[in-house]
Design goal:
14 helices, 281 residues, 3 strands, 62% helix, mainly alpha
Length: 281
């Protein structure tokens, strides 16, 4: 038997009690705002760190250039420039990520290897193959400027650009210590090779040359006269201390006149022409 209906709440206390029994607890509806889950908290964090190249502990796929770099590095350390050129050219032409910055792991040593061997046209071709996005990178610009000065035989600029590039790769912010070490050594090798070629040209181009002019061509400062004299005297040049004139040793008449001789003679003539133009300007 059903009893009489319950009368509706009438007082304020009865109304509040009825509301509490009809509504679910607030804690069951949602988690407290002050205790977010770990995944939500991490997702909300802003990305403040810069992109870093993959390291050995990461599982990201390496580019062809990164895989070949240890071989390039070893060939550079041993001075095997021809082998370095072969490996780097093949890797650069077959790489799948032409616009990836890691491409410079091959391109930079490749360009310097060509320049050490005085093969400037292939070096220029390598740099012109780069896409625009890579030519704006400071390392690429430094290589372009050094190569340009070398091609145009701006002797004093060659040593200046080489020193600037050398200092750049040795900066702590360069980003790749092993590449920096390889490039620094190759830049020094290039300067030594360029200086030796220039000295040989001076021997063919001049019967006598002022010490100050020889210093300019060989990349020595005015206070490095002793270094120039040591090189000159070791190659049987003569030096007049009163006039400060260097006299190269006479050239052997038994030298075989092949294509190498013709090229050296042409460069020597250009060297004299450039000197005259500089003195007249």
């Amino acid at each position: 038997m059903t009893g009489p209906p319950t009368p509706p709440p009438s007082s304020a206390v009865e109304i509040e009690d009825a509301a509490r029994t009809m509504l679910p607890p607030q804690a069951a509806a949602a988690a407290p705002a002050t205790e977010p889950s770990e995944s939500t908290s991490e997702a909300a964090q802003p990305a403040t760190e810069e992109f870093q190249p993959p390291t050995g502990g990461q599982t990201q796929q390496s580019t062809t250039y990164e895989l070949l770099f240890p071989t390039i590095s070893e060939l550079a350390r041993t001075g095997s420039l021809r082998e370095l050129i072969e490996v780097a050219e093949r890797g650069d032409l077959s790489g799948d990520f032409a616009a990836d910055p890691t491409r410079l792991l091959l391109v930079a040593p490749l360009v310097l290897a060509y320049m050490i061997l005085n093969e400037l046209s292939p070096a220029r071709h390598v740099l012109t193959r780069l896409p625009d996005v890579l030519t704006t990178i400071p390392l690429s610009r430094g290589l372009f400027m050094l190569l340009s000065s070398t091609v145009e035989r701006r002797y004093s600029d060659v040593y200046l650009r080489a020193e600037e590039l050398h200092q750049f790769v040795l900066q702590p912010t360069f980003g790749n210590a092993e590449l920096a070490q390889i490039l620094a050594g190759m830049i020094v090798s290039f300067v030594d090779a360029f200086r030796k070629r220039t000295f040989n040209l001076l021997s063919r181009a001049y019967t006598s040359i002022p010490l100050s002019l020889a210093q300019m061509y060989l990349g020595y400062t005015p206070d490095q006269a002793k270094e120039v004299l040591n090189v000159a005297l070791a190659n049987k040049w003569k030096y007049d201390q009163q006039t400060q004139i260097l006299t190269p040793a006479s050239q052997s008449t038994s030298y075989v006149r092949g294509s190498g001789y013709a090229q050296s003679t042409l460069e020597a003539v250009n060297l004299v022409a450039n000197t005259i133009a500089s003195l007249e300007s």
